[in-house]
Write a structure and sequence with these properties.
Layout lengths: L18 H38 L3 H23 L2 H21 L1 H26 L5 H24 L3 H10 L13 H25 L5 H30 L3 H9 L6 H22 L5 H32 L13 H27 L17
The structure holds protoporphyrin IX containing FE (HEM).
């Protein structure tokens, strides 16, 4: 157990709303952020592979599929960012002492995220503009994927470092300029890989949803088929990585997680949902263009539930780790300002509804590149 002196004293300004409200809001928006992160990582990988091989083999469904992906990615990125900002604010309110300290310690890396996000966005736009003209975009896709994977690694590094106050003083002594990185931590890479593997699961499920909700066609059947096996493979891979995520935690945290009445059952819930993903994915590979709206809805729902379960458990890892370090987030001083809280909640719900409406508009929009329009203009070297 660490002494409280290892981190700065709690913020003297009390919380303006009960902790549970911040927790619910935080986990809700963070789940949405993680859905979009995984969706984007998965679609980038799938899209660029289809674009590369589709052009090399003159495979029209692959090129059409990759065109649809490329057209969606810049829009998806706006959601990813907008769903990332609120949890950043909530995390700073609840865990400011920890998150600020770890962010400053790796300040140069942390600030580089801004530039990396802008570059990722630019690569996505450049890719989608090339796809619109039915030109190859896999090069831009690869750049965007590498950038996004690096951003994810910086996030995993910071979110792990904020849980390790015992490492802070030494890190600061060794390098006070924010250009250093934390000492090796066995939990960082598994949690990063878990999110990357989630790209296959959520990306595959999103393909099923995209293909199955439109009218039956060979092009949509192609999306459903490939979405099915990719989602199933992703869920299995994630289950393997989840095992690593759990078993690399300090023994005391593993014991606390398992003993917790709230967090203890969550791995079972997650595994059950992952098993349903595998079954639904395999079903999708059989149904192909015969898949209907219920498969689309089921896939979308599963992606959100699976991610939300993981997000809540991840929150438990943080809270129990910080508790072992002497910080109880539930002990925060609260002086609720109810009129402001209610106004905020009303605006928050209106914002979510607005976003939902925008998503519905996007989903109803026509694909950018129909299979029938495809002409391969550029030969592939
Ligand atoms: C391509 C861009 C991005 C990618 C790939 C990405 C990926 C990730 C990943 C993998 C994590 C989890 C790290 C872990 O716990 O191991 C994460 C957490 C987070 N991301 Fe993003 N992210 C991106 C952009 C953003 C942006 C632009 C924001 C906000 C301005 C944001 C806000 C957050 C927050 C607040 C968390 C953690 C919150 C918490 O632990 O409470 N992300 N992100």
């Amino acid at each position: 157990m660490l002494a409280l002196a290892n981190f700065s004293p709690p913020d003297p300004i009390p919380l303006p709303a009960p902790v549970w409200i911040f927790k619910v809001l935080h986990c809700t928006v963070l789940s949405l952020h993680f859905v979009t992160v995984q969706w984007m990582l998965g679609w980038l990988l799938i899209g660029l592979v289809w674009n590369f091989f589709g052009r090399a083999r003159q495979n029209a469904p692959m090129i059409a599929g990759s065109g649809r992906i490329a057209g969606t990615l810049p829009i998806l990125m706006t959601y990813l960012i907008n769903f990332g900002i609120p949890p950043l604010l909530f995390a700073q309110v609840l865990y400011g002492n920890f998150l600020y300290t770890s962010s400053v310690l790796i300040g140069a890396w942390w600030m580089s995220v801004i530039a990396l996000v802008i570059l990722t966005y630019s690569a996505l736009y450049a890719g989608s503009m090339r796809a619109e003209k039915t030109r190859g975009w896999w090069g831009f896709g690869l750049v965007a994927l590498l950038l996004a994977v690096s951003i994810a690694k910086i996030y995993s590094t910071n979110m792990t470092l904020m849980l390790r106050p015992e490492a802070w003083v030494e890190m600061f002594r060794a390098n006070a300029h924010g250009t250093g990185l934390p000492p090796a931590d066995p939990t960082t890479t598994p949690r990063w890989l878990f999110m990357l593997a989630g790209g296959l699961t959520v990306g595959g499920l999103a393909l099923i949803t995209t293909g199955a909700r439109k009218k039956a066609s060979a092009e949509n059947g192609f999306l459903v088929f490939h979405g099915g096996w990719i989602a199933a493979a992703g869920a299995l891979l994630q289950a393997a990585v989840a095992w690593r995520v759990f078993h690399t935690q300090p023994q005391a945290i593993q014991t606390k997680l398992s003993a917790s009445a709230f967090y203890g059952p969550l791995p079972i819930v997650w595994l059950a949902l992952a098993a349903v993903v595998v079954v639904l994915g395999l079903l999708a590979t059989v149904l192909r263009e015969k898949a209907t709206g219920w498969l689309a809805t089921g896939a979308a729902l599963l992606g959100v539930l699976l991610t939300a379960t993981m997000t809540i458990y991840r929150d438990g890892i943080r809270d129990l780790t910080l508790l072992a370090n002497g910080f109880d987030v539930w002990d925060a001083k609260v002086v609720a300002n109810w009129p402001v809280v209610l106004l905020f909640l009303a605006i928050f719900v209106a914002g979510l509804l607005g976003m939902g409406w925008l998503i519905a508009v996007v989903l109803k929009s026509k694909p950018q590149v129909a299979e029938s329009q495809i002409q391969i203009e550029e030969p592939v070297q």
